[in-house]
Amino acid sequence: xxxxxxxxxxxxxxxxxxxxxxxxxxxxxxxxxxxxxxxxxxxxxxxxxxxxxxxxxxxxxxxxxxxxxxxxxxxxxxxxxxxxxxxxxxxxxxxxxxxxxxxxxxxxxxxxxxxxxxxxxxxxxxxxxxxxxxxxxxxxxxxxxxxxxxxxxxxxxxxxxxxxxxxxxxxxxxxxxxxxxxxxxxxxxxxxxxxxxxxxxxxxxxxxxxxxxxxxxxxxxxxxxxxxxxxxxxxxxxxxxxxxxxxxxxxxxxxxxxxxxxxxxxxxxxxxxxxxxxxxxxxxxxxxxxxxxxxxxxxxxxxxxxxxxxxxxxxxxxxxxxxxxxx
Length: 327
Description:
By secondary structure, the chain is α/β, with parallel strands linked by helices. The protein is 51% helix and 15% strand. An eight-stranded mixed β-sheet has the order 7-5-6-4-1-2-3-8, sandwiched between helices.
């Protein structure tokens, strides 16, 4: 039987963690009882520099039951880096790892089907929302537009899929080969390849606590995803530049004709609009190029994507952890 790890990044999740741990423990115990996974499967909570009591709760859970493990990062590294820290720790200890958020919006019962598809030979199993009926119109519209925009710009993602997925050890080892600092796992995982399957589920409301992704952070995450995985925005800027240059030639010819036919009329409005339009396009273009230059700057520094301060596990897993590369 396969050893399964559930990896859950946590940031200020003290309100939901007791219920999340309870439901996940019951789910893994059920899978073990039914012979689908081995009895040394584990639940790994990754504390991403929480300011509340999250880490203390994780320590207590580990003391009470060895099925729980804990990773404490040295500081807040961000959701994607925290998730990667858990997956890179798990890759040397498990046969497959399931990643999900701590807020219980992802359907824990979908894990059964994920494990079945893994046992049937799938290396990656994506958890995909079956619908967005529970979302507000604004959230539904922006989310669907975002997925379409990202894919149109060349960053291939799985539609309506976030970070709820199963990855085999082979897929995790493949993921470890991607060394970029600017992480967008929703776009990187499909690049790993291997056989993939999909599991559909209904996404629930957050069980407790507040969302860690307000609109401003969601927009930042969207920009990160596009600029981390695709150079199409720069190509679009180049195309736009040629188009404006072509239009300017037409305007120049038109102006000469008007001048020599004696129909020159001062065009204050046209001039002002043209200056503001071209100026705005230049600023946007410079901003997009600046995003890419900034990412190049961060990549050349080759800074660590996460630093693990403490790993709570049994002695056997700790020894494996200490002997392996977790980058």
